[in-house]
Structure formats: C-alpha cells, structure tokens
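Task: sequence design from structure.
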C-alpha cells in the first residue's frame, strides 16, 4: 500500500508555521502568537500567514537557550 503524499513531501519548506512552533516548543496557541508578534522573534507575514525561517528560528533558539524569555 502506497503512502499518501502530503503537501510537505511534494513541496519541502524552509519555513515553520505557528503550529509547527507550537509542537516544537510545546507552547499553546496564545503564547506562540505572542512570540510571533514579539520584536525579537524573526517571524515574517506572507499575506495573512505568519511564518518563521527554519535557520533563523534555530539561531533564535540558540540565542535564548538557557535564558528566560518573557512574552
């Protein structure tokens, strides 16, 4: 039985969505949207959709690793 391809299999992305960040950081929706709207988080808005570049997200995580980040 062949596995059904999802859109990410066909079109790999270098961006995370807020849902991806929720899953990675184990945060709730409100906290993630506060994060995406904070001045220090490298989010971009494409049309009405928020995204964060994977490499910039990883750099942001490295920068704040071991420190408290208050939203």
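Answer:
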């Amino acid at each position: 039985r062949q596995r059904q391809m999802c859109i990410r299999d066909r079109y790999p992305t270098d961006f995370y969505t807020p849902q991806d960040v929720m899953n990675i950081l184990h945060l709730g929706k409100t906290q993630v949207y506060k994060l995406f709207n904070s001045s220090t988080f490298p989010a971009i808005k494409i049309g009405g959709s928020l995204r964060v570049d994977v490499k910039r997200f990883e750099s942001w995580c490295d920068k704040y690793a071991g420190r408290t980040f208050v939203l």
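Strands lie at 15-16, 43-46, 49-53.
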